[in-house]
Structure formats: structure tokens, C-alpha cells
């Protein structure tokens, strides 16, 4: 049968089991919106900005394991996706982004709302392609979903010219995919597994370093079993957090620039570093030449290009984390790591995280980030925690307790401010029964604040925690430590009436804008302001009771807080700033 | 740092060349030359890529190329006997009668041809390895004052017998 391209598009979505699509309409995708009007099984989520909808699709995908699907128009609709595509690409999130495009005859003419979005996204997507012929439409959509979700997952951009979508053609949607240039690796090389196992068993100071790959491949319980049997301590990246329950005695902490003292020391002292699903990014390794310099390194990753890229690896294993861990389990046995575990315990006791809270946090009556996250730990047994980027993210990843009932969504690789709110919306839409808690700074919250309307429209009772210190805190922290307290462009209270670069906020400072409580109310959401540490739990309880309305809780926190420990950019990770 | 050759089979589609070239700029890989043309199967193009890199970077380049959906096969020509040639045209301008005599001597010695000829100019065609072309060019630059040069970049193919490298 002959059908229009738009009809094949909706058919393809149904075949791919897409139940939700994140959208914004415009001239070049209006025909697709018209086709979606007849499809009650595909729920449209109309965001308020394309960046917001794409982060929401990302949150939906990370929290459900399904592909997040976006539909936007050409030109600015497409370019507004760019940050979110790059965010998903860095953190290996499966997405398919459909962009409207001007008719094929107009491509290259600088037509109204024309951009080369395929060219723009080449280096930040897993794959991007324009459908130039109606006969290729079904195959390309099929391939897009396959590429997005297989191997190392990632975002795929499919550009849909208006005339191609209006053209009549075959109604067939393919069942199978065969791409000669794309064959994700499958299986595990048993010889390499054996070698890796030998290294582990013979090590005196073995250490697991776990990245996001273990969470993506849903290998948490298998991995925890492996660590338990072998009695090998575990450190994680922030995306790997939760791979083993944080209360498990083998869990040491996060590694990296704001990792825990014990975790960074362990990485520096271990003799075998067994890493799964991380790419040894610079925030993890610090000075590369001094990273784990005494250790033999094993690296399991599904992406061959991530292996031996930043760190020279002794035993490379290209495999899916879950498959590899299952193979490791077959020959796992208990190692004699008693002394090594004692050493790690000593490091943990020597400098626990709470010993490194700077004086500002100890003095006042304001709520502290530590106190707030601990209250969240107590309030919610089960939740999806979403962070924005900056100090709020680091505090959350330091103090959040995680087990199999908790998930953490955070922009780890790209570090995208403005990620938190829309990603929380996507997570709640994918998991309507789950508590979804977001933590953001006052800076990042404003970057996609317009999505409050989306959250209200879809009656999502999100708990939206803002840590308001009136500053862009992480940058201010660097300025405080390394730039002689020259707070250039980081004060959020600044007004034109201020004295230039006053350097210290005080009672005479202009009022903060916006007023988050009034802002929440104007969106039809609840707003609570907490200025006293004693009111934190109550505010969280109130927010948790809401069933249909999101709640913004604005926590006024001290403005001088510093995330510690901190490894200065370019230093070895065992050279931490512990006090200030 | 070492000079290396890669043969790359890619989908013959719009934008593939841009994607490959973009990899080299985006990741700061040092690209010496890149040539591209279709193969016997017209849905497939073949590129010859010459890079100058150390071992680690070269491994990373191959892996990154392999990652592209449009890349069908990456063949590393390090330690593989290959034939390789680069086409180069050199137009010698403002030359005198003596210059032209000299040019014919050079052409004969280097086994290249003078393919076109005017009253005060001549055109040399050379299909040699790029190292040999470098040498020829250096000599021509020494001997003559005004040159116009166009070089095509290296193409390479695996040899049939084992001990032939150019």
C-alpha cells in the first residue's frame, strides 16, 4: 500500500514501541504533528524550549532504559537541541532526535529556518543523517533506533525534509537491520577474562573502578555479587555511583576532582586497577602520569575507542559490562585482601567527608547541602535523584546514599547546567510511581526554568530543591581558591546599582531575583523557602505529600561553601586540598 | 612520530568525507593527505589517508574511524607491502631555452614526463611516491624561478608480492 511519509513515521514509532515523544512544533514538522493527532497511543510532551524537551527525553531514557525520542522543527528548533545532544552523547544515552528540514529542493539555499543540522551535530552525535528519498525513510528510522540503543548507546539525529515526508511511498517498515559499517561487539574474549582474573587474584591491593557502563548495562546486582565474593574494594565515578550500595563496606567512595580522600588514595596506591565502563576522563585521573602509577590496569568497555585512550591499559577487554561481569563471576573466588581493606578503612577514618566541611558551613543556622542530602536520604527509601551541575552536583554525589532502589541522573561528561529540571520531568514521566527529586543551584535552575510550565501542565509532583547561595558557586570556589577571591561574573545578586566587584555579599545587597516562591506560585506550583536548618525535613515532607503539583524548595545556604576535598586541575589525585 | 598509510572503505554518501575530515580537525590528529574515489562497487568509496603520528595516537585514529557508522573497513598499511603513488603536476613558467633543456634532463633522470610545452613554459607530470615528488620539487625550485604546483595526495594499494614497498 502507498502511504505518506508522515504516516510511515507514526507507524515506525509504534513499531519501535515509542509511547512518548518530546516535541515542539514549527513550519517544517507541522505535517508530522498532524499525523500524530491521530495517534492516541503516542503521548506528546510539549515542552517550552527545545533544549528542555531534549534533556527531558534524556532523563526519560536514562531512567527507563528506553530510547528517548524528540521531534522539533528545522533551523532554530534543531539548533536548540545541540547542547542536549552533546550531553547525551558524552553520557551514552540512547536518543533519536527527529528534526524538520526545508524541502530537498531548498536545501543549500539559505531558505527560511534552514540549517545543516546534520553537519552541526556530526561531532556530537553517534550518527546523523538526512532522509533524502522517501524510499529510504523506513530503513533509516529503523537503523536510527538500532544505532541509538546498541553497543555504546548514544543520540542519533534524523533530519526529515518536508517534501520527503509528504511524498507517497511504500508502507513497509523493516523488521531487521543490516548496516555493513556498524557491528557492535558482542561476546567476551575468555582469554582476556582469564588474564584479568589472574591479575586480580594475585594482587595485594586490587581495586575496582566503576563507571557509568555498569549502570547502563543494568549490571548492578551482578557486580555487587562479584565484589562481595572477591572482597575487593570499590570506587566509582559519579555516573558509576550506585553500582554497589553505598552502605556496603567494600564501597570506598567517589574518585576524582571531588572524590573522597580514601577513594583517591586507594586509586593512587592500588597494584591492580580493574575498571569497568569508564573512559578515564581528566576529572577522574588528575595528572595522568601519576594516576595509578603502581598499578596494572584492566579495562572493560563496550567501546573499543575508550580503551587505552587516556590511560595505557595492560589487559583490554571489549565487552558489555553485564556480559563480562557474568563471565568473571564464573571463576570468582575470595581474595586475601584483609590488610588492604584495613588500610582503606584507616584512610576513611583519617579524613571522612564530613571532616572537610569548611568553617562557613559549621557556623550559621542556614541549612547545609550535607544536611539537606542526608534529610533526602532519610525521607526517601526509593527515588530517582536528578542533579544539575556545579557544587550542588558534587555535594549530592558525595552525600547521596544509594542502593538498588535508587538511581542518580546527572550530566557527568559534558557538565551541562540547566540539565536538572527538564531531566527530572523526563524521569517522572517515565516512572510516574517513583519519587523524583532534583537538586540544582540557583544558577542552573534558571537555565531551563521555563520547563516549570511543562511540569505543572503534566501534573508532575516533583521535589525541586534549589541550593541558593546567590553565586555561581563552583566557579566562585575556583576564584576563592585560585584567583585571589576576584569574583568575576559570579555574583547572582549583582545589580547595576552595586559598587563594582564588591567581593563580599552582605545585608545591604540587593534582593535576589527571581523570588523563587513567587515564581513557583506564578507557574501554578508550590513554593517553600527554607532559611533554617531545622526546617529542612518538614519542607521535604510537605513536598513529598503533593500528588499533582511540583514543589520548589528554595534552601538559602551559606555563600562561602566549598566542596572538599578538591584536586586542583592538573594535579595528581592524591594531592587533595582538604581544608581551607 | 612516523608516517603511516590507512586504506578506508566508506559508504559513498553525502557528508561522509566531511565527517572523516572533521574527525582529524576535531581530535587534533595530524592529517598529511587524504584522497578519495569510488571503487568497483559504486556504493563504496575508498580513501587513502596519510598521517604522521606516534603509536598511541595512530591506534586511537583507527579506533575512532572504526566507530563511524559510515566506515565499512579500516586497513592499516603499517608493515604491509604496498604500492603507493602520488600524482603531481608542476608548471614551469618564464623559462628560457636553456631552462627547457635542463628540464628535459631532469625529467629523464627522474622518469617523469614533460606533457605540455609552450614558448616560455612547460608542464611536468610526475606519478611517484610523495618522497620522490618532494625531491623532484626541491630540485625544480632550485633550478627555476616560477613554479605552479598541484599535488593529489598519496594513493596506496597492497602489493601482490611481499617485497615491494612503492
Question: Overview of this structure, please?
Answer:
The complex is a heterodimer of chains A (580) and B (166). By secondary structure, chain A is α/β, with parallel strands linked by helices. Chain A folds into 3 domains: 2-170, 3-Layer(aba) Sandwich (Rossmann fold); 190-351, Rossmann fold; 357-556, Rossmann fold (3-Layer(aba) Sandwich). In chain A, 36% of the residues lie in helices and 17% in strands. Chain A contains 24 helices and 20 strands. In chain A, the strands form 4 sheets. In chain A, strands 3-2-4-5-7-6 form a 6-stranded parallel β-sheet, with helices on both faces. In chain A, strands 11-10-9-12-13-14 form a 6-stranded parallel β-sheet, sandwiched between helices. Chain A has a 6-stranded parallel β-sheet with strand order 16-15-17-18-20-19, sandwiched between helices. In chain A, strand 19, helix 24 and strand 20 form a beta-alpha-beta unit. In chain A, helix 1 (5-15) packs across helix 2, helix 11 (220-230) runs parallel beside helix 14 and helix 17 crosses helix 18 (391-399). The N and C termini of chain A lie far apart (72 Å). In chain A, 53% of the residues are buried. The mean pLDDT of chain B is 93. Chain B is an alpha+beta fold and 166 residues long. Chain B has 2 domains: 2-76, 2-Layer Sandwich (Alpha-Beta Plaits), CATH 3.30.70.260; 83-158, 2-Layer Sandwich (Alpha-Beta Plaits). Chain B has helices spanning 16-26, 55-67, 97-110, 130-143; strands at residues 2-11, 31-38, 44-53, 71-76, 82-93, 113-117, 122-128, 146-158. Helix content of chain B is 31%, strand content 43%. In chain B, 23% of the residues are buried. The two termini of chain B are 20 Å apart.
Amino acid at each position: 500500500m502507498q502511504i505518506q511519509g508522515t504516516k510511515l513515521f507514526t507507524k515506525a514509532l509504534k513499531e519501535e514501541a515509542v509511547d512518548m515523544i518530546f516535541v515542539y512544533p514549527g513550519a517544517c514538522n507541522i505535517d508530522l504533528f498532524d499525523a500524530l493527532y491521530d495517534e492516541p497511543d503516542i503521548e506528546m510532551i510539549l515542552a517550552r524550549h527545545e533544549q528542555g524537551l531534549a534533556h527531558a527525553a534524556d532523563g526519560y531514557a536514562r531512567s527507563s532504559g528506553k530510547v528517548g525520542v524528540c521531534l522539533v522543527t528545522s533551523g532554530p528548533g534543531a539548533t536548540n537541541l545541540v547542547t542536549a545532544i552533546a550531553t547525551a552523547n558524552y553520557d551514552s544515552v540512547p536518543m533519536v532526535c527527529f528534526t524538520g528540514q526545508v524541502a530537498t529542493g531548498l536545501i543549500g539555499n539559505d531558505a527560511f529556518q534552514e540549517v545543516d543540522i546534520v553537519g552541526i551535530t556530526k561531532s556530537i552525535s553517534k550518527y546523523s543523517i538526512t532522509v533524502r528519498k522517501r524510499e529510504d525513510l523506513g530503513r533509516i528510522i529503523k537503523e536510527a533506533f538500532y544505532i541509538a540503543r546498541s553497543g555504546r548507546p548514544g543520540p542519533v539525529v534524523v533530519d526529515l525534509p518536508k517534501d520527503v515526508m509528504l511524498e507517497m511511498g511504500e508502507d513497509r517498515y523493516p523488521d531487521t537491520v543490516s548496516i555493513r559499517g556498524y557491528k557492535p561487539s558482542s561476546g567476551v574474549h575468555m582469554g582476556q577474562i582469564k588474564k584479568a582474573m589472574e591479575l586480580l587474584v594475585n594482587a595485594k591491593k586490587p581495586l575496582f573502578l566503576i563507571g557509568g557502563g555498569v549502570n547502563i548495562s543494568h549490571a548492578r546486582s551482578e557486580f555487587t555479587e562479584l565484589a562481595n565474593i572477591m572482597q575487593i574494594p570499590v570506587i566509582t565515578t559519579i555516573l558509576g555511583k550506585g553500582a554497589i550500595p553505598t552502605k556496603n563496606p567494600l564501597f570506598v567512595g567517589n574518585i576524582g576532582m571531588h572524590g573522597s580522600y580514601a577513594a583517591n588514595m586507594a586509586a593512587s596506591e592500588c597494584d591492580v586497577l580493574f575498571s569497568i565502563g569508564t573512559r578515564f576522563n581528566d576529572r577522574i585521573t588528575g595528572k595522568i602520569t601519576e594516576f595509578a602509577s603502581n598499578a596494572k590496569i584492566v579495562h572493560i568497555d563496550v567501546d573499543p575507542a575508550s580503551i587505552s585512550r587516556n590511560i595505557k591499559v595492560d589487559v583490554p577487554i571489549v565487552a558489555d559490562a553485564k556480559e563480562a561481569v557474568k563471565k568473571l563471576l564464573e571463576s570468582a573466588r575470595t581474595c586475601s585482601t584483609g590488610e588492604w581493606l584495613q588500610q582503606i578503612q584507616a584512610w576513611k577514618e583519617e579524613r571522612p567527608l564530613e571532616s572537610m566541611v569548611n568553617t562557613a558551613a559549621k557556623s550559621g543556622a542556614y541549612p547545609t547541602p550535607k544536611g539537606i542530602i542526608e534529610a533526602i536520604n532519610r525521607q526517601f527509601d526509593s527515588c530517582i535523584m536528578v542533579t544539575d551541575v556545579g557544587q550542588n552536583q558534587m555535594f549530592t554525589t558525595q552525600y547521596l546514599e544509594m542502593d538498588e532502589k535508587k538511581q542518580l541522573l546527572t550530566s557527568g561528561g559534558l557538565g551541562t547546567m540547566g540539565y536538572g529540571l527538564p531531566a527530572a520531568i523526563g524521569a517522572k514521566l517515565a516512572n510516574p510511581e517513583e519519587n523524583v527529586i532534583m537538586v540544582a543551584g540557583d544558577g542552573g535552575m534558571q537555565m531551563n526554568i521555563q520547563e516549570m510550565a511543562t511540569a505543572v501542565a503534566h501534573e508532575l509532583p516533583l521535589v525541586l530543591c534549589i541550593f541558593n547561595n546567590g553565586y555561581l558557586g563552583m566557579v566562585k570556589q575556583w576564584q576563592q581558591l585560585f584567583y585571589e577571591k576576584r569574583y568575576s561574573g559570579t555574583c547572582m545578586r549583582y545589580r547595576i546599582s552595586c559598587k563594582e566587584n564588591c567581593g563580599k555579599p552582605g545585608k545591604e545587597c540587593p534582593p535576589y531575583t527571581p523570588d523563587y516562591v513567587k515564581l513557583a506560585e506564578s507557574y501554578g506550583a508550590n513554593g517553600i523557602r527554607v532559611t533554617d536548618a531545622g526546617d529542612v525535613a518538614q519542607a521535604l515532607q510537605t513536598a513529598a505529600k503533593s500528588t499533582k503539583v511540583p514543589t520548589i524548595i528554595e534552601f538559602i545556604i551559606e555563600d562561602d561553601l566549598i566542596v572538599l576535598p578538591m584536586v586542583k586541575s592538573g594535579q595528581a589525585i592524591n594531592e587533595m586540598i582538604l581544608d581551607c | 612520530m612516523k608516517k603511516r598509510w590507512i586504506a578506508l572503505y566508506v559508504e559513498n554518501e553525502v557528508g561522509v568525507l566531511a565527517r572523516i575530515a572533521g574527525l582529524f580537525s576535531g581530535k587534533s590528529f595530524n592529517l598529511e593527505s587524504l584522497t578519495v574515489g569510488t571503487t568497483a562497487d559504486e556504493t563504496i568509496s575508498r580513501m587513502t589517508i596519510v598521517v604522521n603520528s606516534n603509536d598511541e595516537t595512530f591506534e586511537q585514529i583507527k579506533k575512532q574511524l572504526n566507530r563511524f557508522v559510515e566506515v565499512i573497513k579500516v586497513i592499516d598499511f603499517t608493515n604491509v607491502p604496498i604500492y603507493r603513488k602520488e600524482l603531481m603536476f608542476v608548471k614551469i613558467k618564464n623559462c628560457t631555452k636553456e631552462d627547457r633543456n635542463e628540464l628535459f634532463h631532469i625529467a629523464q633522470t627522474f622518469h617523469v614526463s614533460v606533457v605540455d610545452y609552450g614558448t616560455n613554459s612547460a608542464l611536468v607530470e610526475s606519478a611517484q611516491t610523495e618522497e620522490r615528488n618532494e625531491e623532484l620539487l626541491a630540485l625544480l625550485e632550485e633550478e627555476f624561478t616560477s613554479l605552479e604546483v598541484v599535488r593529489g595526495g598519496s594513493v596506496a594499494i597492497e602489493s601482490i608480492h611481499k617485497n615491494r614497498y612503492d
